Structure formats: structure tokens, C-alpha cells
């Protein structure tokens, strides 16, 4: 499959039709998606109708937009007209259908993109593994015996497998950056509240954001422009780079360290204060807001929840409000302190995940010398960044033939163009870059 920019150019020029791309995409999904356990619904009728509309516009001499005819999918927590918004839970499988599309889907449709699928996730986005009690565990297309990460694992897997050119996920504490790192993609957690959240099933409002998964940096920049309404380019200038140390230097793969050494050998190392406390506060705020959101449903239908998610939500619902307020007050102090500390720099470099993808049959990772649940701790490096609300771009290390692994490039609020500029420099040097999984996949799930 070609990328977003190439497909749109072919459709806008009339060289290939939107209908052609949709039909080819539907064939790929039918033939290759099943082993991944990544797609929850294929929207064939809707996609064909949207593609026909685009082709008619091209035939009449019109311009359907910069995403003309590009098929894509969304995490199963975006409102899609006529469908229940399940958020990955059997609790809402028969909910009333959405009356309209989510705001981001409307923006993409106006730009010519064609929605073709909804995609698997951790129930209510509570986890880093996409282990879903209703739809199953999403597999990593680079090795089907391994996790794709979460909670936006389905959104990552279909792009990494070459089944879709891009997808949308959501990121509360790392739910885009973690699967992007484990599947070898670009994944963006934007500046908090910067991209449209209307019609997206919430988890924790303090941290929730949406963002794209892409197989190229050019595709990522284009999608950010469309969703944000701003230019992704800025004046080419030297960027001031720093590395994050302290807890960000613990639980790191040696190849991540080597890559950061190559990227910025003389960059200053910044240690953020109270980083462990920040992650604990992020856990607390997430649990409190998630628990309160689902409190009534837990009272009525607790047994319909995934047991692991249910127990965490119940624990969150029982947290006292004054403890939540203290965590929020600490968050304000932490953000202000971090902003002062990083003021001299444009881009901070840190690992995106502590390791490559863990096994599905043993979903644990090594944290501080002990085995820990991947579902909780794959976000050890992403969660503190969500706590700040700063933008973070996951970039894949270029390592064909090996399990993917990524870094995150972190900026100050509203500085996504600087992250794209620096990521382009790394891509040109061959340090980062996407290697999509083969169509046959690997591993054995029999």
C-alpha cells in the first residue's frame, strides 16, 4: 500500500479513482486483517459511498481535498454516524447509534478521506496492551506472538501491517506513543486539547487527546495540519536539543541509548524533578476521573466490564476528592517547574517505551529489575509527558528485520512543527524510519 500523500495525489489528478483504492483496501482487510485482531467493524457501504462522491467531484473538475480518496480507520471510541460508540466494551455494544460523526472524522471527510473501519482497543482505553475481553488481543504484525501495545493497538497494527495508510487513536497516558513504538510507526500525542475531541468517548479529561498513526513523517505532518488547521512547517533554524535523564534513563533498551547518543552526543541531560511522583499523580488522576465517569454503569452492570478494567475503575471511584485535588495542584506546580527547566530547548529526546513488544502469552516486562504487567507499565516513559500536556511525537528507530522500538521527541505547547522538523533530520540521517511488516506476518498463533 502507498502512503496518504501518494494516494491523495493519484486521486486528485484522476490517475486512480477513490473507488479503486477503497476496493483494494477492502480486499486487503478481508484477506489479511483477521490474524491481527485489530478491526472491529468494516464500513464497506459507507466507504463506497464516500469514494463515489469524491470521484464524481474529480470528474466534475472539483478538488475533493488534500486527503482525496485516502482510506483510514479510527479507534472504536470515535462517534461514527449510525453506529454505537462502544469504547471497546460489551457494555455499549447495543447503545443508541451516534447521531453524527466525531469532529475529527468530519474534518477528515471534508479533506477527502474515506472512513473504512473501526479498530480494537483496551476497554475504555484503560491499558497499554489492547487486551480486549470482547474483541480479543491485538497482535503485532511484526510478530504475531507479541503485543501491539495499547490502548490504541488496533489503530497501530493495521497501519504497521500496510492495511491502511493512516489511522486515528487516542492518547491519555501513552496510548498512541506506546503502540507506535512497538509496531514501528510515527504516532503523535499533540499539545493537550489542541486537536478536536468532540464525539470521542472520554477516559480522563485531564489527559485525553487524539492523534494519528502514520507510516511516514510527511503523512503525519499533513494530517496534523488538517486536524489542527495550522501549518506544519516553520522557518528552518537550528534547534536546541536536550535529553531527558533520571527516570528516563532507567528501564531503557541499549539500542535506544545508542540512538540517542548518535542523535545528540553533546546535548545536555535534563533531570525532571519529582518524576516518579508525577507518574503516581497521573495514575491517581486517571483512576479518579475514569472511576467517576463509569460510576453509575459500575453500579448497574459491573459484571459486563472487563474484570481487570472493572477493578481499576472501582478503585478509582473510591478515591477521595481531596486526594484528587492535591494531585491536580501538584500537577500545576510540576508543569510550571518543567516549563522553566526546559525553556532554553526546542526538543527533548526520551525513550517511548522501556522495551520492544512483549509476548502475548507472557505479557510482562522488566521494570526496575522485576517483572511487571505490560498492561500497566509499558507507559512508564510516556505517562509523565502526558502529565505536562506537552506534545510528543513517537519516532521509529530504523531497524529492519528486528522488533520495532521508538523514541519520543517532546516539545513545548504548540511546537509540533519543530518536532516534525527535527524528526525529518533524523529520517534523513537514517536513524529513524518505518519498516512495515510483511503481508504474511510472522509468529505462530495456532
From TrEMBL:
SUPFAM superfamilies the UniProt entry points to: Amidase signature (AS) enzymes
Gene3D superfamilies assigned to the protein according to its UniProt record, in alphabetical order: Amidase signature (AS) domain
Domain Amidase: 22-419
Pfam families cross-referenced by the UniProt entry: Amidase
Name of the protein in its database record: AtzE family amidohydrolase
Protein's organism: Sphingobium rhizovicinum
Taxonomic lineage: Bacteria, Pseudomonadati, Pseudomonadota, Alphaproteobacteria, Sphingomonadales
Amino acid at each position: 500500500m502507498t502512503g496518504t500523500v501518494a494516494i491523495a495525489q493519484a486521486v486528485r489528478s484522476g490517475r486512480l479513482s477513490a473507488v479503486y483504492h477503497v476496493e483494494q483496501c477492502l480486499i486487503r482487510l478481508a484477506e489479511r486483517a483477521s490474524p491481527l485482531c485489530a478491526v472491529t467493524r468494516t464500513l464497506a457501504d459507507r466507504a463506497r459511498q464516500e469514494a463515489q462522491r469524491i470521484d464524481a467531484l474529480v470528474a466534475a473538475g472539483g478538488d475533493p481535498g488534500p486527503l482525496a480518496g485516502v482510506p483510514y480507520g479510527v479507534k472504536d471510541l470515535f462517534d461514527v454516524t449510525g453506529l454505537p460508540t462502544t469504547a471497546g466494551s460489551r457494555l455499549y455494544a447495543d447503545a443508541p447509534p451516534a447521531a453524527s460523526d466525531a469532529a475529527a472524522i468530519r474534518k477528515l471527510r471534508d479533506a477527502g478521506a474515506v472512513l473504512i473501519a473501526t479498530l480494537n482497543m483496551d476497554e475504555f482505553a484503560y491499558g497499554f496492551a489492547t487486551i480486549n475481553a470482547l474483541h480479543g488481543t491485538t497482535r503485532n504484525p511484526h510478530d504475531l506472538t507479541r503485543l501491539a501495545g495499547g490502548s490504541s493497538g488496533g489503530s497501530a497494527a493495521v497501519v504497521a501491517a500496510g492495511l491502511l495508510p493512516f489511522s486515528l487513536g487516542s492518547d491519555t497516558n501513552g496510548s498512541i506513543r506506546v503502540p507506535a513504538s512497538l509496531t514501528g510507526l510515527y504516532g503523535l500525542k499533540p499539545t493537550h486539547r489542541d486537536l478536536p475531541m468532540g464525539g470521542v468517548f472520554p477516559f480522563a479529561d485531564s489527559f485525553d487527546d487524539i492523534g494519528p498513526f502514520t507510516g511516514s513523517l510527511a503523512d503525519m505532518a499533513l494530517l496534523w495540519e488538517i486536524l489542527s488547521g495550522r501549518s506544519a512547517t516553520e522557518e528552518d533554524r537550528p534547534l536546541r536539543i536536550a535529553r531527558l535523564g533520571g527516570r528516563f534513563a532507567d528501564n531503557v533498551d541499549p539500542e535506544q541509548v545508542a540512538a540517542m547518543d548518535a542523535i545528540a552526543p553533546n546535548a545536555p541531560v535534563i533531570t525532571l524533578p519529582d518524576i516518579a511522583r508525577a507518574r503516581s499523580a497521573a495514575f491517581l488522576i486517571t483512576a479518579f476521573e475514569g472511576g467517576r465517569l463509569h460510576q453509575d454503569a459500575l453500579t448497574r452492570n459491573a459484571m459486563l466490564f472487563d474484570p481487570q478494567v472493572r477493578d481499576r475503575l472501582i478503585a478509582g471511584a473510591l478515591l477521595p476528592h481531596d486526594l484528587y485535588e492535591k494531585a491536580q495542584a501538584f500537577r500545576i506546580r510540576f508543569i510550571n517547574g518543567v516549563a522553566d527547566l526546559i525553556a532554553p530547548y526546542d526538543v527533548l529526546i526520551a525513550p517511548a517505551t522501556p522495551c520492544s513488544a512483549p509476548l502475548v502469552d507472557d505479557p510482562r516486562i522488566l521494570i526496575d529489575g522485576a517483572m511487571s504487567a505490560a498492561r500497566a507499565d509499558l507507559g512508564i516513559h510516556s505517562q509523565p509527558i502526558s502529565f505536562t500536556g506537552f506534545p510528543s511525537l513517537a519516532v521509529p528507530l530504523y531497524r529492519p528485520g528486528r522488533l520495532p522500538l521508538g523514541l519520543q521527541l517532546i516539545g513545548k505547547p504548540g511546537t509540533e512543527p519543530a518536532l516534525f522538523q527535527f524528526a525529518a533530520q533524523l529520517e534523513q540521517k537514517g536513524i529513524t524510519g518505518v519498516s512495515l511488516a510483511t503481508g504474511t506476518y510472522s509468529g505462530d498463533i495456532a
